[in-house]
Amino acid sequence: MERSRRFAREWRSIGLAKRMKWRQEKGDGMVSLITAKIVEAFGENGLDVLSAAYEEKGEEDGSKIAESLNIERVDLHSAVSVIEALCIIFGIDSNFKEEGGHMTLKLDACPFEYILTLYRESLCIYYVQGLVHAINPCVKVKIVKKICEGGDHCLFQFTLSSDENASDRV
User: Fold this and answer.
1) The predicted structure's pLDDT at residue 163
2) Is residue 96 helix, strand or coil?
3) Which residue, 2, 98, 131, 158, has fewest beta-carbon neighbours within 10 Å?
4) Do residues 62 and 129 make contact, with C-beta atoms less than 8 angstroms apart?
5) Confidence (pLDDT) at 59
6) Low-confidence residues of the chain, pLDDT below 70?
């Protein structure tokens, strides 16, 4: 027992939690640097690549959330519930409203602030599209208001379209 206490004291004395936080911040910095270098080297084509990557990652995350929470992949409510789950995970208040064939989602904070560090204002739409397309590819996403562009909240609008072009970017 004494050996384990000594071990715990030693780890506490070297500040393991601080070192782990530094590693996380270092990793975030690396992603930001890589992203910036891609855009710097390839311009608009670089943003297209990043957009596709964010959407693919959104679909992957949306599928995992849907599987974990047993969300049925059917309707507009199901698709939007994936974002609600993400908001709950990050402790962000969300307010859903259904109005005339579409749903709106108001967020008091940005759930992507730490996930999408660079170019968030232009790339978050693709991640959100990926999240909802994992549930229903016929859901169109539009961002009406953004915190990262000076708004006091983010406002998303979701509509269900039977159109085959519903997955086109807004």
Assistant:
1) 54
2) strand
3) 2
4) no
5) 93
6) 1-29, 73, 114-119, 162-170
Residue 12 host element (H or E): helix 2-13
Contact 166, 138 (CB under 8 A): yes
* DSSP 8-state symbol, 138: T
* Whole-number Å distance between alpha carbons of 75 and 98: 13
B/e letters for 100-137, b = 16+ CB within 10 Å, e = fewer, are eeebbbebeebbbeebbebbbbbbbbbbbbbbbbbbbe
* Distance, CA of 170 to CA of 129 (rounded, Å): 10
Are the CB atoms for 91 and 159 separated by under 8 Å? no
Domains of the chain: 2-167 (3.30.1380.20)
